[in-house]
């Protein structure tokens, strides 16, 4: 049994601790728990801890008004014009209308975590009191051990949620304890970004020794999906990478890159993780994802098909309800497999009349291109085709999404599949390492560690089934930086990285002001021959102040939080 | 009620007065008409001029008012120009350097013209793509860089456990015009920091070499210790176009390491395997996959018998090499191959590839369970005692009525047929096939049995100790196709997974009319099956 699936529902009554509702509504049967009723036995304590996991459902898939975060950057367009995700692209998002406003979500989860950590501090005593059969030593030891793990997991989650806030807002109030006093709370000011990252890193260092290596094959597999050592190590890696990046390290302090590299190296050197041999299948592992050698942490979900209904091409029954449309900008980033060159480079081997032939295999594992086979038939993205551009709810770019979409569902029969959203994977760790090593030591130096930047990126490119050529030796640091950035764009497409990467690299003023390009395909014969013409789908707007999210207006109006520059006048 | 009437009367009276006041016709004057700039002429062309690509724009605008500005932009090319102007007519002519389109593209130039009266003209001008032909007649630039096709080495990972490694680099370098220079470099270092570098520059001399150069060179990389190396070929043509290609080479860096405890070569070629569907899952013979715990670092939990005839060897594999073929159930290794290491005689704790100097033991002198760690960089082997019992022993579902102080006396062999003296999925009489507990080893169960054709087998806790019926199954889980060893290869790790609902299901599949000798370990779940010698 996966704890995340059902604990969300169990935790709702536990965590709604207010005493609202007047006498008028009182009934004889009390169904809610007060705070003092919760931390009294193993069952209730543990469920409160698992409840901190529920904020993980705020990650991934079509979470922004039916759109993916990919549609808020140059990875994709969203076909539903009414989705608020378009605020990002037309520059109309504000402190009162931010489609990715996660402030409340994560601070609620952080408060939940703090409450759990404070109230369960005497868990050994509570569990001892809870032991009805004193001789049941095994049971007591099991519960003690489980709460010890859970407390470490909750600390990890609290740090994780802090980083998600730091990525968006910059410096934020670091909340390490429950604050009930309202005047104290509203006067709480922002801590610096560096303070926030230090908190995340320190917490990771503290809990890594306390967390389990794996939950697979433990206790009948019923706890799979809980956080592990690897998850905390990966969080530390990501936090340090963000701290070293140009947005947060304007002086380019090399020590910050070195720390990021060393943190990633700790995972690589341990050898517990490796690249999955099937890139296309990696994102459809369901609840087996945490048993995969590449996955360090994933949100395990349930049987569903909403994502498929949204993203199947419009010509499929019940498909095309809120389509994520990969951009030509992204498609252009996939290199040629034979030469390892970008499509615009002389001698790359690219044929504009057959634009998808001979490309990096990850293209067609991530994107449905015209005339490729999907769920039993060829997809007709061409003008006039049953999935073609121009139809209501059809693709707006000439492409459909493939990554994370379960291909073989019959939606008319309401078939479903288990989805899981990968939060940390080894491919990202290698790319984090490559980026940090290149900035710290250059492309081919090991800097006293066991792997160079080039070796790390080569490993990603050489994955079984992808087998892209290794990078040419002798690249300069600048050239390697560009290659690493493109590799991240391709390898991690649609995984909620690009939106933040272009910000932390401080290149969004370029990338996010480029028009979103699309492909018009015209079928010229019945023998599957086509003409391809790239066109501009829409202009996009990104302003300098958008590198950081606006703090919600409702929070700023309380008085103590200073709004991020540029958003004050909104 | 009086008050209410009064309240109603006042607004009605007010409305009547307002209506009366509005009877006079009011005529709103026309608002002042704003002059909009006129677009007299506009053209935009996408041109190929010499080596470069340019956007050429010509715009003619006029107005009765004074024109104040003209802004021209194109997002995908990053063109954004603002011209401040004064006068009633303006002609804009300019070119902008732009990138070459990899795929044909429809471009537009967005135009915004303003006048002093506040009039704004916004329009787009479609770009005419004439870039197929160079504007300089007869211009035939050499923009293609040389092409490098590397044919050797065909593998990037070399064993080199004891000897230096010969490497042949072979490539064909071509250019559509003329090659100017080749540069070849091979470099890298061993784990001990020994740096290796070799390079050479070559100039093609003959006419044939200037368009097709065949390069072949033999190198020797240092062996005997792990190292990581790279090679590159850089080709430059007469126009300065350049291509760099190359690859990574490793020596002694292994992807997989296995512990072999086959007593001899016969046990290697006659070890058991699980015949699962059309695949072959080995993993139940004399070879144990060691978990990769770092770069060239491998570990395994293992029961060491400490017998006189122990024959412990470590079999290494790199790249796509595997110890078993999947199609023909073949064994691809031997006990004395170039990929085999063993403990060095007289130097406990160190491993060597010089097998004539090996003692084939582990660095301990007592039988027991150990975590074996092999560091192929340092060439060491360590054995750390495992003190904890198998935590599953406490699970009554998996190990019914099990007492680690008095383990089961035997495990019954149960099968779907074709095992002599094991007629079904329950334990029979006294002659029922079984694996008795070894006298000297508490958790090892060993014995012989005979198959008479293809069969699935599992083990069952003995009925004599009184477990509930149908419990104590040691069998493969349902997700058998997903069972992989630490390297992702299909295996048949046989574990207790509790009662079988339907009696017969899963189990190890053996084939043939064969007499087998099997050992099953309740601590590590290792099943070791070999044909009886």
Question: Can you tell me about this structure?
Answer:
The complex is a heterodimer of chains A (570) and B (533). Chain A is mainly alpha-helical and 570 residues long. Chain A folds into three domains: 1-64 and 100-191, Serine Threonine Protein Phosphatase 5, Tetratricopeptide repeat, CATH 1.25.40; 66-99 and 306-405 and 507-570, Serine Threonine Protein Phosphatase 5, Tetratricopeptide repeat (Alpha Horseshoe), CATH 1.25.40.390; 212-300 and 416-506, Serine Threonine Protein Phosphatase 5, Tetratricopeptide repeat (Alpha Horseshoe). Chain A is built from 21 helices and ten strands. Chain A has helices at 3-15, 35-38, 42-51, 86-90, 103-119, 123-130, 137-169, 182-186, 193-207, 229-244, 254-270, 279-282, 306-311, 328-331, 362-366, 426-441, 453-461, 477-491, 498-504, 508-511, 553-556, and strands at 76-78, 295-304, 324-326, 367-368, 373-374, 377-378, 400-401, 417-425, 516-525, 529-538. In chain A, the strands form five sheets. A two-stranded antiparallel ribbon of chain A has the order 1-3. Chain A has a two-stranded antiparallel sheet with strand order 2-8. The longest helix of chain A has 33 residues, at 137-169. Chain A is globular, with a radius of gyration of 25 Å. The relative contact order of chain A is 0.13. The model of chain A is unreliable at 1-25 (pLDDT under 50). Chain B is mainly beta and 533 residues long. Chain B folds into four domains: 38-134, Sandwich (Immunoglobulin-like); 147-251, Immunoglobulin-like (Sandwich), CATH 2.60.40; 259-385, Immunoglobulin-like (Sandwich), CATH 2.60.40; 391-531, Immunoglobulin-like, CATH 2.60.40.3620. Chain B has helices at residues 2-21, 207-211, 265-269, and strands at 38-49, 52-74, 79-98, 108-115, 120-134, 147-152, 157-158, 165-174, 179-190, 195-202, 212-221, 227-237, 242-251, 256-260, 287-294, 297-304, 313-317, 340-343, 351-352, 368-375, 380-385, 410-415, 434-436, 444-452, 455-460, 473-475, 495-496, 508-510, 513-521, 527-531. The radius of gyration of chain B is 41 Å and the shape is elongated. The A-B interface holds A 138, 269-272, 274, 277, 288, 293, 332, 343-344, 346-347, 350, 352, 355, 444, 450-451, 455, 458, 469-470, 472-474, 513-515, 517, 519-520, 532-536, 539 and B 75-76, 78, 99-108, 143-145, 147, 185, 228, 230-232, 234, 241, 243-248, 291-295, 297, 394, 482, 488.
